[in-house]
Design goal:
The protein has 198 residues and is α+β, with helices and mostly antiparallel strands. Helix content is 27%, strand content 27%. Strands 5-4-1-10 form a four-stranded antiparallel β-sheet. β4 and β5 form a beta hairpin.
Length: 198
């Protein structure tokens, strides 16, 4: 990944995670961030050569959403051991956790495990239970395998419906611009050390 050409941990990995988060719970009202390069060297897989690494590998963001909810995000790259990815929602009525423990996991790739707990029932159980995703969230035939193929097929099916029905259910160029403005604010918050009101 290269910081100068816009392909880096913030714009790609963190960008997808932040996009999913904002789509799910709403937009940020204020943010602060820390971005750092903790691992200074990398090995070129094809040759084994050790080179200097100049891109960031740690991104920490916290802030408040327009709804008043608080958010904390940690995205790390370049680590030899990965625990996967998780998106955790803690509300007044319950908890929902989306996770994928694959070493190459991203929120936009593969199958996410969905678990939850209703806080009114916590006297009976203090652990998360796996939740079944309702069938009406599957738009493609059962013959489509899971993983990235499934995700692409789902997106294409939504795109087709938007064209056929004149609706707008998929992200647009305007959505991408909005996300990149937020990423610019995150970079500015990290560069200045300031908490930014958006």
């Amino acid at each position: 990944m290269n910081h100068s050409n816009g392909a880096n941990l913030l714009t790609i990995n963190a960008g997808h995670a932040i996009d999913a988060l904002c789509y799910t719970v709403g937009d940020f009202k204020e943010i602060s961030a820390t971005i750092a390069n903790q691992i200074k060297q990398a090995k070129v897989q094809e040759t084994g050569e050790i080179i200097e690494k100049t891109t960031v590998d740690q991104i920490l963001i916290n802030g408040t959403l327009k709804s008043g909810a608080t958010v904390s995000i940690h995205v790390q790259g370049g680590v030899p051991y990965r625990t996967g990815v998780s998106l955790e929602f803690f509300g007044t009525e319950g908890v929902i956790v989306l996770s994928n423990e694959s070493t190459h996991a991203q929120l936009q790739w593969g199958d996410l495990k969905v678990e939850g707990m209703h806080l009114a029932n916590r006297e009976n159980s203090s652990s998360l239970a796996e939740l079944t995703i309702p069938d009406h969230y599957r738009w493609v035939p059962d013959t489509i395998p899971g993983g990235p193929v499934f995700n692409v097929a789902q997106a294409l099916e939504k795109f087709k419906k938007d064209i056929m029905e004149g609706t707008r259910r998929i992200p647009s160029f305007d959505d991408a611009v909005k996300l990149h403005i937020l990423l610019d604010h995150i970079q500015k918050a990290a560069d200045t050390g300031e908490r930014l009101l958006l």
